[in-house]
Amino acid sequence: MNTSPALNSCGFRRKLMACVLLMCAPTIWAQEEPQMNLKRVALGVGMHRIDAQVALTPEQRQIGLMWRKNMPTHEGMLFVFEQPSQQCFWMKNTLIPLTAAFVDDDGTIVNLVDMQPQTLNPHCSAKPVRYVLEMNQGWFTKKNIKAGTKITGIASR
């Protein structure tokens, strides 16, 4: 058995690091499969209906729509934050192009931002918001939905 202080120190650091990584793994490495079993909510934008998964916890918001290869046209993800603040999103490990609608407490869309897959570019709200709705890129444009439009069902979250 080797009892060299240098090896023991290195071995101890390796074990400590392994322990830290195991405890922190969920926050360091997001799961590599989509989260599909989140609570859902029905939202409305004029005559259009959206079946949105709701990301409430920090971990759910961090994973978001990562790893999805596709998403049905009428579906999206609603990110709910504890309080209004400037929200910024990126597309790390997100495989499909999305549009983020940054939404005020009363359900009014503040701004819309198209986001390209697998990029780290920040996409931010124009002012503090508590909600962000991600849909397939082009969904809002095809439905002629712009900043200032109200989304129903959001303000009751």
The string of secondary-structure elements, in order, is HEEHEEEEEEH
Helix vs. strand class: alpha+beta
Whole-angstrom Rg = 20 Å
Please identify which CATH superfamily of the largest domain we are dealing with.
Protein of unknown function DUF192
The proportion of residues in beta strands is: 25-35%
Largest sheet features: 6 strands, mixed
As laid out across the biggest beta sheet, the strand order is: 1-2-3-8-5-6
Quote the CATH topology of the largest domain. Jelly Rolls
- State the domain count: 2
List the total number of helices: 3
Detail the poorly predicted runs: 1-30
Q: How helical, in percent, are the residues? A: 10-25%
* Residue-averaged pLDDT: 85
**CATH architecture classification of the largest domain:** Sandwich
What global shape is seen? globular
Structure overview:
This protein has 157 residues and is an alpha+beta fold. The chain has two domains: 1-29; 40-142, Jelly Rolls. Helix content is 22%, strand content 32%. It has helices spanning 5-28, 58-63, 139-142, and strands at residues 40-45, 48-55, 75-85, 88-89, 98-103, 109-115, 123-124, 129-136. The strands form two sheets. A six-stranded mixed sheet has the order 1-2-3-8-5-6. The protein has a two-stranded antiparallel ribbon with strand order 4-7. The longest helix is centred in the N-terminal third of the chain and has 24 residues, at 5-28. It is globular, with a radius of gyration of 20 Å.
